[in-house]
């Protein structure tokens, strides 16, 4: 999973292409984008313009969530038609750089807020979860529950393991699952989060465990794709084979 990153100038530049399709008919009317209608029977050039615009917008809309589409279209038309820009190139660069810095500051503040809230929620969850029948807690804070004990061998940290698993947040949201993909995965046990490296060494082949992993032995303050910073994670893991 990819790490969460802040807005970059390159992402911002890509986002500036969001509604390319709005101007694809090369018309001079300011209302052209609003009046055009595209269907399967439209001319090829219209469909090309619309397709480019839609795909670029869909792929980049999160980069500039508050983009003013009217001024974007005005800027695009002026540039495409060779008109004099309302701002100098230096001014435009300054505007984009300032915007990026503002978005980065907002992002950092938002992540710090979420990190604090998730840490508090996770700690409270683990306190209550640790009291449940069958749940054991290790020195690192890792909690686990044996669903099926297993009878094969246990892996070492340097081994490659084959597993099926499902990963959830404490609110029940599933963020990753080999079951959904329809096939198990293999990986070196010392190249995953610390909670997994520790937890799977407690298992035997054929076993099935539930792991409740504190954020500091999961993805920590960095978080990951679909996982906010300082998130406590819940995994159901079947150890199929130690290689």
UniProtKB/TrEMBL annotation:
InterPro entries xref list: INFPOTNTIATR (IPR008104), PPIase_dom_sf (IPR046357), PPIase_FKBP_dom (IPR001179), PPIase_FKBP_N (IPR000774), PPIase_FKBP_N_sf (IPR036944)
Domain of life: Bacteria
Enzyme class: isomerase
SUPFAM superfamilies reported in the protein's UniProt record: FKBP-like
The entry's keywords: Isomerase, Rotamase, Signal
Listed EC numbers: 5.2.1.8
An example Gene Ontology molecular-function term: peptidyl-prolyl cis-trans isomerase activity
Keyword Lyase: no
Gene Ontology, cellular component aspect: membrane
PANTHER family per UniProt: FKBP-TYPE PEPTIDYL-PROLYL CIS-TRANS ISOMERASE FKPA, FKBP-TYPE PEPTIDYL-PROLYL CIS-TRANS ISOMERASE FKPA-RELATED
Annotated protein name in UniProt: Peptidyl-prolyl cis-trans isomerase
Upper classification of the organism: Bacteria, Pseudomonadati, Pseudomonadota, Gammaproteobacteria, Moraxellales
């Amino acid at each position: 999973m990819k790490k969460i990153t802040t807005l970059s100038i390159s992402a911002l530049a890509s986002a500036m292409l969001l509604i390319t399709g709005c101007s694809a008919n090369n018309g001079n009317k300011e209302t052209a984008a609003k009046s055009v209608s595209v269907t399967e029977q439209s001319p090829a050039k219209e469909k090309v313009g619309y397709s480019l615009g839609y795909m670029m917008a869909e792929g980049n809309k999160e980069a500039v969530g508050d983009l003013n589409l009217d001024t974007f279209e005005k800027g695009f038309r002026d540039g495409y038609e060779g008109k004099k820009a309302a701002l100098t190139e230096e001014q435009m660069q300054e505007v984009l750089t300032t915007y990026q810095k503002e978005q980065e500051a907002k992002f950092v503040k938002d992540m710090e807020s979420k990190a604090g809230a998730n840490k508090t929620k996770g700690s409270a969850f683990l306190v209550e979860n640790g009291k449940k029948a069958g749940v054991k807690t290790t020195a690192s804070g890792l909690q686990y529950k044996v669903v099926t004990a297993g009878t094969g061998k246990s892996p070492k940290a340097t081994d490659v393991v084959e597993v099926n698993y499902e990963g959830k947040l404490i609110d029940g949201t599933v963020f990753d699952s080999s079951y959904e993909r329809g096939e198990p995965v293999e990986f070196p046990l010392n190249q995953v989060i610390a909670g997994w490296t520790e937890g799977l060494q407690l298992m035997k082949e054929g076993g099935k465990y539930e792991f409740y992993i504190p954020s500091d032995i999961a993805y920590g303050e960095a978080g990951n794709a679909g996982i906010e910073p300082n998130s406590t994670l819940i995994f159901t893991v079947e150890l199929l084979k130690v290689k």
